[in-house]
Amino acid sequence: MMDALVRISSNMKSMERELHCPVCKEIVKQPVVLPCQHSICLMCASEVLVQNGYPPPELPPEPNSPASTPNTRSPHQARRPMPSKADHRPIDRVLRSGFGTYLSPGRRRKEPPHAMLFPCPPCGREVELGEKGLTDCLRNLTLERIVERYRHTVSLGSVAVMCQFCKPPQSLEATKGCADCRASFCNECFKLYHPWGTPRAQHEHVQPTLNFRPKVLSCPEHDQERLHFYCRTCQRLLCPLCKLRRIHAGHKVAPVAQAYQTLKDKITKEMNYILANQEMVLSQITQLESAITQTEANSVAAREQLSQSVSDLTALLAERHASLAEALERARQKRGEALAGQVAERRSLLEHAGLMALSQELLKETDPPCFVQAARQTHSRLSTSIEGLQCFSLAADPSFRHFQLDVSKELKLLTDLQFIQAPLAPVIDTQKTLAYDQLFLCWRLPQESAPAWHFSVEFRRRGVVPGGGARSGIQGRLAAARWGWQRLEEVGGTSAVIDRLEMDSVYVLRVRGCNKAGFGEYSEEVYLHTPPAPVLNFYLDSRWGLHADRLVVSKEQRCARSVPGLSLLQAADLALTSCHLTADLLVGDVAITQGRHYWACSVEPGSYLVKVGVGLEAKLQEWFHLPQDMASPRYDPDSGHDSGAEDSLDSPPPFSFLTMGMGKIFLPHGPNHHYNHGCPANGTSPRRSPSIANGNIPASSPTGLTYPLPPRLGVCLDFEKGRVTFYDAHSLRPLWEGPVDCSGPVCPAFCFIGGGALQLQELVANRMADQTPVRRVTIQSRVTNLNN
């Protein structure tokens, strides 16, 4: 029996950390629940509010204080009278009496007070308590019961609660507590204050304690109203009156019994999951303990390395100091010798000394040959001395200005001296990042980031719940395990290419840098949508003969520019009588006969009119050989075709184009089979995207809508279905869909009216052909089924 008690006591002691108040770090007393669901002592909450500038409220006495313990009566009293409810008011009544609601002296009571902000220590942020402050915070009665059981179990009955109504000299141990009287009694006193056959005999008996709680939680705003409902939206308990408030209109409100059972089932399920994975818990504890040991060992090694580095810097600084001091001494000696030589030379010019004495003795010579022979050297020295006197200058600079050290950079480096840091989270370049035949990801490091040796690129396919919607909770973790992260390791540079991906799928990508300090933070995740069909690679065809004065194709045959030439200038003579423009056709060098294919291009925003689409090869050749002057770029009422055939919706049109120009793209509303002298018009049966249907269109007309020109336009042709879909290639959002005649080979086609330019999207594989391949691995994630 004793072993069982010791085991229970040990288990309860391990729970003590969960019962601590986050402010005082002791076991909670009279805990209240904050809106963030954290519990805190009532006294601690009051002190925190006072520290933040709120007036101190009136608090009820602590349960174990003399003011709340009736056993502190005078020994001269024989028996203490029956405890009244006024002496033992519940804490929630005290809270409702005005705690947490403050009115300044000059404020009218009708004006609602400002909401109180409580800095919650576990959250690390301010929690809004509302206008009434802690009045709206309910007591955590469940936590109080757990604390009481904890105290009783840990003490193992060694601390007794004394009767509150016995005389102090003969005080007996309390054996019962009364929840209605809110006091503890011995057997004799209990019988005396609860006579048989009286209403007091029906009071609820509890274990003896000094901290009595209310029997049930009541609404803090409506006195004596029980909390029968739970608002899932607000995550608050409600009484029947609170439920009728407008603030909870439309919220998900359930009976508290249902919320109780639901939450209890969830906690039970989560506990069973943890208990079923105790091996995982023990394994992680072992890893954590090993990590703690490694942390201690590595910190000692790092401290030694720090001392060694500082010692190396000190030794190098001392060595450099000695070298500079030696250079300074050599300069001092050299300059001192030069100046000393000048001093000796000037001293020799003094009268009766040196050179002057020698010259005076030389002038005493009377033999001309001997004088001439001996005086030439003296004459040279005297001339040099006179020149030196006339142009006097110091032989050396005594200032030593060039021997001052500029250590500002070194001091800044020493001031900024710190441990090496991992690179900061890279920034994804969304303008260059794209999904085409392959995924191309481009990024850069922030300027204040430490350099990176290499990068790690991670990507995964985004899982979708059958029936639509994103995965969350346990289902999301299982989906993440199915579509696990894959990694490109040791990527050099700031870009990467990812291939072998599934079509028409959304991929999530992220990247992080690595250096000597390890891996840094991940970048923000970017989502890329792969094309809906295999990418078709083709070039602009020049076999049909280009008009060199109007249309120019680049050497790589992937870019074309239309420049209005002499023909348009000559046609301007007819401008007074009709609108006369010139259209030029350009096609791709491939003909599609089966399957689904996708390609993309970009149109220069300053282009006048450019049509992008597809058409039957035979019809395109026929249109090319026809005269290319037309009265209107959009519609010719006398096109030479049967109007009945044009109005028929049974046969699909031979061409399907979208018109772009002047920074806009035109999306037609309905069927429009007209084409001018063979110049194709737009297709039929448009399918607009949700964003367009929601009204995100700058302008509209009876025949269609104008939409801002996307940076890149995507075209997807389904040959078997005879359908062509146009996309915003940047986001893969459908813009328009229509039919096209696929009874024969179909070619990508482009039509220029006036000046404009067009660029085919280059394959990512061609752009990164010289890139060094990187190692590709799959990151294994361990997920256990929670249902087990």
Automatic annotation (TrEMBL):
The B box-type domain, residue ranges: 214-256
Extent of Polar residues compositional bias: 65-75, 682-699
GO MF annotation: an example: zinc ion binding
Amino acid composition bias (Basic and acidic residues), ranges on this chain: 635-644
Keyword Nucleus in record: no
Region (Disordered): 55-88, 631-650, 680-699
Keyword annotations: Coiled coil, Metal-binding, Zinc, Zinc-finger
GO biological process: anterograde synaptic vesicle transport; axonogenesis; microtubule bundle formation; neuron migration
GO CC terms, sorted: axon cytoplasm; main axon
Stored InterPro entries: B30.2/SPRY_sf, ConA-like_dom_sf, COS_domain, E3_ligase_FN3/SPRY, FN3_dom, FN3_sf, Ig-like_fold, Midline-1_COS
Domain COS: from-to ranges: 363-420
Pfam families in the cross-refs: COS, zf-B_box, zf-C3HC4
Keyword Transmembrane helix set for record: no
Bias kind Pro residues: ranges: 55-64
Record-annotated Fibronectin type-III domain positions: 422-533
Protein's name according to its UniProt entry: Tripartite motif containing 46b
Organism: Hucho hucho
